[in-house]
Design a protein that fits this description.
By secondary structure, the protein is an alpha/beta fold. The chain is built from 18 helices and 19 strands.
Length: about 475
């Protein structure tokens, strides 16, 4: 588990470190050492290193890195953007040291033939769009084709949301201080940061509110299966999914739930969909006696909730009315996943929001989240951390970086590829999460595990699922005489 911080958290932790007795100059020099090490490893003989620096402490990191490189025999120079008299005290201290040791300090960047750039214009404190000469400079840096090592995060990138504030540096590598910033994993952040190195500055044993999940973290969530486990001990899940327009959604979701390890799976789906389940004999279909979702189908689904360990609702339901099913699931204590059309109906019947509780998982994409919050997609993307924190349940916000939030904690999951941006991926996710709930995982952990298993490549997912993914029909194919 890797810690992630917001801009305010980063600044607060720096203040606490200094209050504990670590001098601010020492923090800046440690940061600069991380930058210098990355630049030194990347440079070739004869390269010039140009640190393009602002007058704030982020600029000080670049100034100090240039000084350290010069002391190590590297041809280094500083381009100071702004009035030298407005430098912070720590930046001024290292600027004086650099001058004393012969580091050229320029007011304008004139590119050289073989050059590595250090971007130290703006840090986490940038709060307004980059304009004028600074924007022109960033655009010139991006157009130059030169390798760029960013100090802490690329200048112009919002540290919390990953938004580009007018213009932002496209870095080859980023040396971020103490912990990744949330914006480095959201919005445009992943595309602009390049390779990321975390440079520790001080010890921090506090429990993280934001964190990055790795394979080992997810593996630890999955309960071990005793050798004598049976279908009943591995959970009975119910899916309320599908319609005559979208039978494939019901099959995808159901197959994923079985592959995810649910011991038993019941699927309540309109009668025209049930024949498709001949391809998935392990699933138990619940007849509704109807051609679509309505009062009679809802009654069948509500009856089927009895003695289930987890419920998944919404995939491929279409325009059918499943509001009574959503309400009944929310009023029960059964762990429940609401996706797709269940989310849309929740947004329309806003009084149901009051029934959300800690055993519920919502799995919206940005558009569905905007409807749930009665806002715009831009508002969601501009503050995704704020969006996921608006509910008294687990929320999984889908995206290139998926966020899973509950009880003040947010997990970042960056696994996956553009191939998942197609119809059916969300249905598979709902099936996997429902299976995890049925096997006893807490909602926050089930959502994290499901998102990871969907996003990882097939071989990694299969390694974690192991014996969970074996279906009875798979065994038939292996029978030999």
């Amino acid at each position: 588990m890797e810690r992630i911080v917001t801009a305010e958290q980063a600044k607060s932790k720096d203040r606490k470190a200094m209050a504990s007795g670590i001098p601010s100059l020492a923090l800046m020099q440690t940061a600069a050492q991380g930058i210098a090490a990355v630049v030194f490893a990347r440079r070739s003989e004869g390269d010039t290193v140009t640190a393009i620096c602002g007058t704030g402490n982020n600029g000080g990191d670049g100034v100090c890195a240039a000084w350290l490189l010069k002391c190590a025999g590297v041809d280094a120079r500083i381009v100071l953007c702004g009035d030298e008299n407005r430098c912070t005290p720590d930046t001024a201290h290292y600027l004086d040291a650099a001058k004393r040791d012969g580091v050229p300090v320029l007011s304008e960047w004139v590119p050289t033939a073989h050059e590595i750039l250090i971007d130290a214009l703006f840090g986490v404190g940038l709060s307004r769009p980059v304009e004028g000469a600074y924007r022109d400079l960033i655009e010139r840096m991006n157009a130059s084709g030169k390798p760029v090592v960013a100090a802490d995060l690329p200048s112009g990138l919002d540290a919390d949301s990953g938004r580009v504030q007018g213009a932002a540096v496209k870095a080859t590598e980023t040396v971020t201080m103490q912990a990744r910033k949330a914006g480095m994993l959201l919005g445009k952040g992943r595309a602009l940061c390049g390779t990321v190195t975390v440079q520790p500055l001080f010890s921090d044993d506090s429990e993280p509110e934001l964190f990055f999940d790795g394979e080992a973290d997810i593996a630890a969530l999955l309960p071990k299966r005793p050798f004598d486990s049976h279908k009943g001990s591995n959970g009975h899940a119910l899916l309320c999914v599908g319609s005559k327009t979208y039978p494939g959604a019901a099959l995808l979701c159901s197959r994923a739930a079985l592959r995810g390890g649910a011991g038993l799976l019941s699927v309540c789906t309109p009668d025209p969909v049930r024949p498709f389940f001949a391809a998935l004999p392990e699933a138990i279909t619940v007849p509704t006696g109807t051609a679509d979702w309505g009062a009679q189908a809802a009654d069948a689904a509500i009856r089927a909730m009895h003695k289930k360990q987890a419920i998944g609702i919404g995939c491929g339901v279409g325009a059918g009315d499943i509001t009574p099913v959503v309400e009944a699931a929310l009023r029960s204590s059964v762990p429940t996943v609401l996706d797709a059309d269940a989310l849309n109906q929740l947004a329309k019947r806003r009084e149901l929001m009051g029934l959300l509780h800690e055993n519920v998982i919502l799995t919206p994409h940005a558009g569905e989240m905007a409807r749930l919050l009665d806002t715009t997609v831009d508002d969601v993307l501009n503050d995704p951390l704020g969006a996921v924190s608006q509910f008294p349940c687990t929320v999984l916000l889908k995206g290139a970086t998926t966020l899973v939030h509950a009880n003040g904690k947010t997990a970042f999951l960056t696994f996956g590829n553009p191939g998942l941006a197609k119809g059916g991926s969300g249905d598979v996710l709902t099936g996997l999460i429902t299976a995890m709930l049925a096997q006893g995982l807490k909602p926050f952990d089930a959502a994290r595990a499901g998102a990871y298993l969907l996003g990882t490549s097939a071989d990694r997912a299969m390694r974690l699922l192991n014996e969970r993914m074996l279906l009875a029909s798979d065994v038939i194919d292996m029978v030999q005489y």
